[in-house]
């Protein structure tokens, strides 16, 4: 923020600060200091007043001291030499009879953060640890942590560490918690503070004296403790029980996290704990703070992975309000999808249908994806809604619906008839790449049932010259070859044109390579091509999917109550709702090292792949690999 | 833990920053501004952002972003709760939490932030404790300060910080001893087109204003405590006694505080005080639509419904409205496309009605869904859940306090779909 007239004002302030008349009048002196702080907070550079402010520090007025300290701590790093002048005053203040002044001086001294001052600070800090006023000890304990950050060599005296350990038994709860925090920072290299049995039991005993923040800290540190016997474990658990239903979400989450880590071998106990937090967690989901609701929803999602039935009857709590921010709406829908059952499916679908026309495109698309997800178990009702949405002829809605349908038929082939009849005419509304790719995929795979499929493709092929998206071109190639296999008469000419263009004129290497590959594949013979492009599909006679397997709690316990919990879910939705087939497939290749996996257990790998609708390219490659060696070398080894 | 805090206004200016460990450059906020740009509406900015070296956790309150920068793994709930606490303290000190007020009191804000965190760890977060170290500004005090040279920064150690009851200061004295409790309930409901309730829930709070001498020990009991589903208390309430006897037993903080908040979510218990008969339609051809809304009392327990206000966010293509109301005034904001009908009191004999036509942009397609109606209302002297305070007893002190309980029902997120 530019501060106009800053220089003039600074000059005037300097004159005022060094004016002996003002210095003699405590009231005017303090007001001048106040003006300096005000300017500093507005972003003006007042660092040039440093030496004047150091002088202002030598005063009996506590208030002025406080203000000057705020100034000094902000600018000390810019003026290391001048800061040496302050140390003397600060050290004198550490002897002051008023504990408030002592703690203030100690805190400011450690906040200067100048490595050159360390030697002067150590002595008052050691004295501070033994001060009789708790507020001085609080500051002194944390002061050591700050000091150890300044000296990266970590050559802190072992005696200090011992002293800090003994202060864990301090009568003041804040000192105890600060001790934990300080030791965690000082002993970072060695894995943090040592948590043994006596310390654990002592901390648990003091837990209820601490404030909310302290409780969270203690609970977090205790996660490292492993009880030696079952009796001890259950003693600890019963001590923790009250904080499991704490009205403060952070405490509740920290306790549950500790519970889960303690009972990692006792799934039944963990499940009971999850049941117990249902109430507090639900009320956190209804909290008046948006951000809290969001965080709580993310944690609910984690819980549902293991106990899908946990919140079944509370599904109405997750209905979205009109004015809620998009990030909450999207999370709520993801939770709703998990909560669907025979009784509420009608209600839920109606509700989700309402969200599909939301003003925010992202929210609308999430809602449509959610309906598609429910469609895996309740196909008819979902498809009815999805088909209805197509009649709105809204660009983003149609795109999302087509993508959802693609994902749905992959998992539930029995829906394909309905989907095929719904697709007619929606190519006119589709504009974005993702939606068109989905449509092309559907045209390729179900082309024999769609009478107009070749004509739709023709429009695409005629426009390929002006097509900008790489994904669409690749998908178009595959769709054209596939359709050629089922309807050769109509497609032959078109496919020829497309391949010719892609091989001769296309600039992009990926598209060219793909076209060449298909061209050579067709040379190998129609049967070989069929084997590659029309591989196994899911069995249409399969029933609907009913629920998904509950994961073991240990899968997510470590990310509960961490930043990861909020992040992971975000990434999942990203790929599940957005990922283009190629994109995900390449990622999978990198992850799995596919050929190797295939060599070991081809069947398992194949089954895994089939459960995911967007891994088409990967499946395609597998089929390619399963071709006869001769054919394969013919395809792959010729330089393209 | 919390490394730095930036206060950012809704246009994206950083107007205050505070660092508890080392100074982190403002450029870290660029990630936030990028997300803010993408979100369009400031309300839609995701609360947690991930940058290569930091986590950015932000809350949005009073048109301000409180953006904290975090370098190590921490519990997100913890940070969010703490940021809200900071905002609460500002609100408590200055009466509101806005950019202007923070800029006016910037020195106090700095002093407060300095006391609330040390090395990134929460230090003193109880408003009672803070108020003894740093006194809140009042008009009288600022006049006195300029005359006598006093300041808002206290120079003695707060006694409360060392006592067993951190939320109450010692040596409180009043000439008039009084304790008031306000039971305030908000109805969050979604009512569908046909008038059936899709979702309803009551969010209640009990706000207390206690000015009592000494160390009083209060017990508040309800006629029907089983009604409450989930409750959350001020730390002063003894949870054990609530669990066993369903009474609130506590040594109160001095002054205003929120004693408890609760939900009533079983739907049959949630009464919907008004019904709305509405008909909003957009004609297929021609650029116009019709609107007809009537409001009537439903379950008001014989009390008067006041402060009735209807807000409708119209679709973008509605250009103007031509409406007549039998009661109250209505306005249509042309830029925001918001129709507000301020009805006032609901007279059961003569139901208020708003009707007329909507003119739309010609050639625009018919909107695919009708706008929903947001309601605002107030009912004095009634807690819609039926919650009643039966008595308040005081132990530990000799005098007889003056006691009072007030009830109020409001509409929270009350929405009627059309």
From TrEMBL, chain A:
Record-level GO BP terms: intracellular protein transport; vesicle-mediated transport
Pfam families registered for this protein in UniProt: Adaptin_N
UniProt domain Clathrin/coatomer adaptor adaptin-like N-terminal: residue ranges: 10-522
Annotated signal sequence range: none
InterPro entries attached to this UniProt entry: AP_beta, AP_complex_bsu_1_2_4, ARM-like, ARM-type_fold, Clathrin/coatomer_adapt-like_N
Main location: membrane
Matches recorded under PANTHER family: ADAPTOR COMPLEX SUBUNIT BETA FAMILY MEMBER
Name assigned to this protein: AP complex subunit beta
Originating species: Nothobranchius furzeri
From TrEMBL, chain B:
Statement: the UniProt record of this protein carries the keyword Protein transport: yes
Gene3D superfamilies linked: 3.30.450.60, Mu homology domain, subdomain B
Entry keyword set: Cytoplasmic vesicle, Golgi apparatus, Membrane, Protein transport, Transport
Residue stretches making up the MHD domain: 176-417
Segment forming the signal sequence: none
SUPFAM superfamilies linked: Second domain of Mu2 adaptin subunit (ap50) of ap2 adaptor, SNARE-like
Subcellular location: Golgi apparatus; Cytoplasmic vesicle membrane
Membrane topology type: Peripheral membrane protein
Taxonomic superkingdom: Eukaryota
Function of the molecule: Part of the AP-3 complex, an adaptor-related complex which is not clathrin-associated. The complex is associated with the Golgi region as well as more peripheral structures. It facilitates the budding of vesicles from the Golgi membrane and may be directly involved in trafficking to lysosomes.
Name under which the protein is recorded: AP-3 complex subunit mu-1
């Amino acid at each position: 923020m530019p501060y106009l007239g800053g220089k003039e004002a600074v000059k005037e302030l300097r004159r005022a600060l060094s004016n002996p008349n003002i210095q003699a009048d405590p009231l005017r002196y303090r007001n001048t200091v106040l003006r300096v702080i005000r300017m500093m907070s507005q972003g003006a550079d007042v660092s040039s007043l440093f030496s004047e402010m150091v002088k202002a520090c030598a005063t009996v007025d506590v208030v002025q001291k406080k203000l000057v300290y705020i100034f000094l701590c902000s600018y000390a790093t810019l003026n290391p030499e001048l800061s040496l002048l302050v140390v003397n005053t600060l050290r004198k203040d550490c002897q002051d009879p008023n504990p408030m002044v002592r703690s203030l001086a100690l805190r400011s001294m450690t906040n200067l953060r100048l490595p050159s001052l360390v030697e002067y600070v150590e002595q008052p800090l050691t004295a501070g640890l033994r001060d009789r006023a708790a507020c001085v000890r609080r500051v002194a304990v944390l002061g050591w942590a700050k000091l150890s950050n300044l000296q990266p060599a970590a050559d802190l005296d072992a005696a200090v560490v011992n002293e800090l350990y003994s202060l864990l038994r301090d009568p003041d709860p804040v000192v105890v918690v600060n001790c934990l925090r300080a030791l965690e920072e000082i002993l970072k290299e060695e894995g943090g503070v040592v948590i043994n049995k006596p310390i654990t039991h002592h901390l648990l005993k003091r837990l209820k004296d601490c404030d909310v923040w302290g409780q969270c800290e203690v609970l977090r540190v205790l996660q490292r403790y492993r009880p030696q016997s079952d009796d001890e474990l259950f003693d600890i658990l019963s001590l923790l029980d009250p904080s499991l239903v704490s009205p403060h979400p952070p405490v509740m989450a920290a306790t549950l996290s500790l519970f889960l880590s303690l009972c990692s071998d006792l799934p039944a106990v963990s499940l009971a704990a999850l049941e117990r937090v249902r109430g507090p967690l639900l009320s956190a989901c209804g909290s008046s703070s948006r951000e809290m609701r969001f965080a709580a929803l993310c944690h609910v999602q984690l819980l549902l992975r293991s106990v899908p039935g946990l919140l079944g009857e509370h599904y109405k709590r997750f209905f979205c309000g009109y004015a809620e921010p998009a990030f909450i709406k999207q999370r709520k829908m993801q939770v709703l999808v998990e909560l669907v059952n025979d009784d509420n499916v009608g209600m839920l679908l109606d509700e989700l249908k309402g969200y599909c026309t939301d003003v925010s495109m992202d929210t609308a698309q999430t809602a449509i994806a959610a309906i598609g997800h429910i469609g895996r178990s309740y196909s008819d009702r979902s498809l009815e809604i999805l088909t209805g949405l197509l009649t709105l002829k809204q660009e983003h809605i149609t795109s999302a619906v087509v993508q959802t349908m693609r994902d749905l038929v992959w998992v539930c082939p029995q829906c394909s008839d309905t989907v095929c009849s719904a697709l007619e005419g929606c190519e006119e509304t589709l504009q974005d790449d993702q939606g068109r790719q989905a449509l092309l995929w559907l045209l390729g795979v179900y082309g024999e049932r769609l009478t107009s499929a070749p004509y739709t493709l023709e429009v695409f092929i005629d426009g390929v010259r002006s097509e900008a998206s790489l994904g669409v071109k690749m998908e178009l190639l595959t769709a054209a070859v596939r359709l050629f296999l089922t309807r050769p008469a109509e497609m032959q000419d078109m496919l020829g044109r497309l391949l010719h263009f892609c091989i001769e004129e296309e600039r992009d290497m990926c598209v060219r390579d793909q076209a060449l590959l298909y061209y050579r594949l067709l040379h190998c013979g129609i049967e070989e091509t069929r084997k590659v492009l029309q591989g196994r599909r899911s069995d249409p006679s399969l029933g609907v999917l009913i629920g998904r397997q509950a994961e073991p709690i240990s899968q997510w316990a470590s990310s509960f109550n961490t930043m990861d919990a909020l992040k992971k879910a975000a990434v999942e939705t990203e790929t599940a709702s957005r990922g283009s087939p190629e994109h995900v497939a390449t990622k999978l290749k990198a992850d799995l090292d596919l050929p190797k996996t295939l060599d070991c257990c081809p069947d398992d790998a194949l089954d895994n792949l089939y459960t995911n609708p967007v891994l088409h390219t990967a499946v395609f490659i597998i089929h390619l690999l399963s071709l006869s060696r001769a054919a394969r070398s013919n395809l792959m080894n010729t330089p393209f | 833990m919390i490394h730095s805090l930036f206060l950012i206004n809704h246009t994206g200016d950083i107007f205050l920053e505070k660092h508890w460990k080392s100074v982190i450059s403002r450029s870290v906020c660029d990630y936030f501004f990028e997300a803010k740009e993408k979100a369009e509406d400031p309300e839609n900015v995701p609360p947690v952002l991930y940058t290569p070296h930091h986590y950015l956790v932000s809350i949005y309150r009073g048109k301000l972003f409180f953006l904290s920068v975090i370098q190590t793994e921490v519990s997100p709930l913890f940070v969010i709760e703490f940021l809200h606490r900071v905002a609460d303290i500002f609100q408590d000190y200055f009466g509101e939490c806005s950019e202007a007020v923070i800029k006016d009191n910037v020195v106090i804000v700095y002093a407060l932030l300095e006391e609330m965190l040390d090395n990134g760890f929460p230090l003193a977060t109880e408003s009672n404790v803070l108020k003894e170290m740093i006194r809140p500004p009042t008009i009288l005090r600022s006049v006195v300060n300029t005359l006598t040279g006093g300041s808002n920064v206290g120079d003695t150690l707060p006694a409360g910080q060392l006592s067993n009851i951190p939320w109450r200061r010692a040596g409180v004295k009043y000439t008039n001893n009084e304790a008031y409790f306000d039971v305030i309930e908000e109805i969050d409901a979604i009512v569908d087109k046909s008038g059936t309730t899709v979702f309803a829930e009551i969010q209640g709070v009990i706000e207390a204003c206690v000015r009592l001498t000494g160390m009083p020990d209060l017990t508040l009991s309800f006629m029907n405590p089983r009604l409450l589903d989930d409750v959350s208390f001020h730390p002063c309430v003894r949870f054990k006694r609530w669990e066993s006897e369903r009474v609130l037993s506590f040594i109160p903080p001095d002054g205003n505080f929120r004693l408890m908040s609760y939900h009533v979510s079983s739907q049959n218990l949630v009464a919907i005080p008004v019904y709305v008969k509405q008909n909003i339609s957009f004609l297929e051809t021609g650029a116009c639509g019709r609107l007809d809304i009537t409001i009537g009392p439903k379950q008001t327990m014989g009390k008067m419904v006041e402060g009735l206000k209807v807000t409708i966010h119209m679709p973008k293509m509605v250009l103007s409205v031509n409406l007549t109301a039998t009661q109250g005034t209505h306005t249509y904001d042309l830029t925001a496309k918001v129709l507000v009908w301020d009805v006032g009191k609901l007279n059961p004999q003569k139901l208020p009605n708003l009707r007329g036509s909507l003119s739309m942009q010609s050639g625009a397609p018919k909107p695919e869904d009708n706008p929903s109606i947001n309601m605002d209302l107030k009912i004095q002297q009634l807690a819609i859940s039926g919650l009643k305070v039966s008595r308040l007893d005081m132990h530990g002190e000799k005098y007889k306090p003056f006691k009072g309980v007030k009830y109020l029902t409001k509409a929270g997120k009350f929405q009627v779909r059309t």
